[in-house]
Amino acid sequence: MIPELGHFALILALLLSMAQSAFSFGGAARGSAAWMAAGRSAVVGQFVFVAVAFGALAWSFVERDFSVLYVASNSHSELPLFYRIAAVWGAHEGSLLLWSLILAGWTLAVTGASRSLDAPFRSRVLGFLGLISIGFELFMLATSNPFARLMPAAAEGLDLNPLLQDFALAVHPPILYFGYVGFAVAFAFACATLLEGRLDAAWARWTRPWTLTAWLFLTIGIALGSWWAYYELGWGGWWFWDPVENASFMPWLAGTALIHSLAVTEKRGLFKSWTLLLAISAFSLSLLGTFLVRSGVLISVHAFATDPARGIFILAFLTVVIGGALLMYAWRAPRLKSVAGFEATSRESFVLFNNAFLVAALSLILLGTLYPLFMDALKLGKVSVGPPYFNLVFLVPMLPLLALLGVGMHAAWKRGLLGTLRKRLYAIAGASVAVSIIVGAAAYGAVRPMTTIGFALAIWVMLSALLVPLARLRGRQPLPAATLGMVIAHFGVGLATLGITGVESFKVEKDFALGIGDAASIAGYDFRFAALRDVRGPNYVGVEADVVVSRGGEPVTMLKPQKRRYNSGGNPLSEAGIEVGATRDLFAALGDELGQGRWSLRLQYKPLIRYIWLGAILVALGGLVAALDRRYRLRATAVARHGTVSAAP
Amino acid sequence: MTPRRKRLLAVLGILAGVGAAAALAMLAFEDNLLYFYNPSQVLAGDAPDGRTFRIGGMVTAGSLQRTDGTLEVRFVVTDYRNSVPVRYEGLLPDLFREGQGVIAHGRMGEGGEFVADEVLAKHDENYMPPEVAESLHEPQPARVAE
What we know:
The complex is a heterodimer.
Chain A: H1 2-30, H2 33-62, H3 69-74, H4 81-86, H5 92-113, H6 119-143, H7 167-196, H8 201-232, H9 243-268, H10 272-295, H11 303-306, H12 308-332, H13 347-377, E1 383-385, H14 387-408, H15 419-444, H16 449-474, H17 481-506, E2 508-515, E3 519-522, E4 525-536, E5 540-551, E6 554-559, E7 562-566, E8 573-575, E9 577-579, E10 584-595, E11 598-607, H18 610-627, H19 630-647
Antiparallel strand pairs in A: 2-11, 3-4, 4-5, 5-6, 5-7, 7-8, 9-10, 10-11
Helix pairs in contact in A: 1-2, 1-6, 2-5, 2-6, 5-6, 5-7, 6-7, 6-12, 7-8, 7-10, 8-9, 8-18, 8-19, 9-10, 9-13, 10-12, 13-14, 14-16, 15-16, 16-17, 17-18
Chain B: H1 3-31, E1 33-37, H2 39-43, E2 53-59, E3 65-66, E4 72-78, E5 83-89, E6 101-108, E7 114-120, H3 130-135
Parallel strand pairs in B: 1-2, 5-7
Antiparallel strand pairs in B: 2-4, 2-6, 3-4, 4-5, 6-7
């Protein structure tokens, strides 16, 4: 009964999102306040019914209703409550429902916070958001109904993939989706702007906090995924250039370019059409990412062949959304002229470089990610693009980007660089290179070109970021939240660069065959396989090893890697034993029994790896601080007065 | 220098930069394309000599052999028509099992043995690598639900 109610609620939500679009667009075109109000009521209704549908599916999971196909496929009677709820978005159908719920939530938030905007414009934004809702709800109802029944009901569920039974991965999809879907707001704003054919600073100012919020969630989501891959997959890597990872990283790159370009559009009225194009791109890549990951196309284009309806719908939906937006862009963008000049060393130029490098990296990553799909679809052979390609095409634009970042932060709008600052920056640059060589030689006993460049850029960016608040405080200038956010985020970028350089330059990964009592040593640490015992968890059994780590005879820590087997059957799963440290992680994963009482163990030494995720957290925190800047709220009221005037019928 | 001349130089500079970047990217792209072959294609000589590629198929039941007490394993990959022996030294992934699909990355060694430097199994335990599924010469046993 409850699943049927959920299904019914989903149908009502679809009808309401149609009403939302129709009344919003119609109302804006006719200038009818009543129609526009009806559109806003539909937003509330849509949210309520998607929430009811989501609740119904969650209830089916909590109550272990194995007569629902989706529940039977992704749950098990022994699955703990937390993971029964997380299992709602454990596969294709449920993740679409979560997507819709988050979109409905964002739409509701936009409706509530946009009173200050020009009424027809506000309505058109809601109209475009409604169109996206229609697409997703129609897709679910037509091809991927999460409420489909299984007759007869299964006696037991197939269980949630044990790899997904983990805290970081349980919260990873909702956070990532928050980011993906958040770009829908910037997208809808861009579309409404193109439809009206005018763009003012108020537009950019209004969009900035929303885009920042979406982007910061995406940042956290990607960092969580990377962290999970590190400790759960048992490989100890933090980024694999896997298509699934690229799918979330590409919208992030576009979003990063967008938040920078938006700043120029707001402050200087420049880059208008470019900003709109980035807003369209960021959301288009989010859509592409959602579908690539969850529909199975990425695994094989032939996944479409097993369910052609899904494939055709996805292609049609992507074509309508992306193609429609780009057509509107081609039609209207020429109207949006930017009228102002700027000097070569002004902040505008630096943002332009930032965007050029980010978009270059993005395009090359897109090429590498989609190329195998095209080859496969055209039956030209099965290929994959190896990580060295991605490393190169990402690194080459990022090095100049980081070098310019340190200067760009201090550049003034419109004018060139100031003389005194120039001297200070030279000093910082010199210090960065010197510290980098010293750190490389003293801490790791090696001075290698790429490592030196990496460390130098990291230190350069961090010091240069710190100079901003110091200079402001010394000059008794105010330090607005937006500037502080920028400083924190850029400092985080430097910190992440430090971590990436450290781990990629000096990591040690090695597999060993060890009997109990045996020891192996890597990077100056001795790992002794001391003991092995049986363990029992709520829904699994397994073995746990004691690996005692010492350095020069001094005990350091004890790692406890596990090998689990879940009661629901299936393959065993490794849980790595990790010792977290400020300068390095020590990592042990337990493999298989090899005979003669020996086990295979993967031992790793990962210097500075924590700073990658710590940096990412700072980047997201910087986004949060900037999004909370009072300026966005103060000016919004100023727009409000203007808005109410033009909204009067 | 006139502003016009300056602009021209800037545009030329950008074009040169973009061109160089594109050439670099294409070179990197060519070098890092990894082709996939099944055992029949490998035996027919389609796979390149002396270059790494990926081989995929099913791990023949009962073919897994360990050199006792070491990390060295040998197993046979089959597409149900032809088979290729594989040698690997290291930790096998959690999802590795006899009778299931596998992809190995490496190159052909001596005596027709494939020397793998990496053995891959994907996240999902029901999941059969698609290249493998399509390259098999036998129909797959149907799975319960998705």
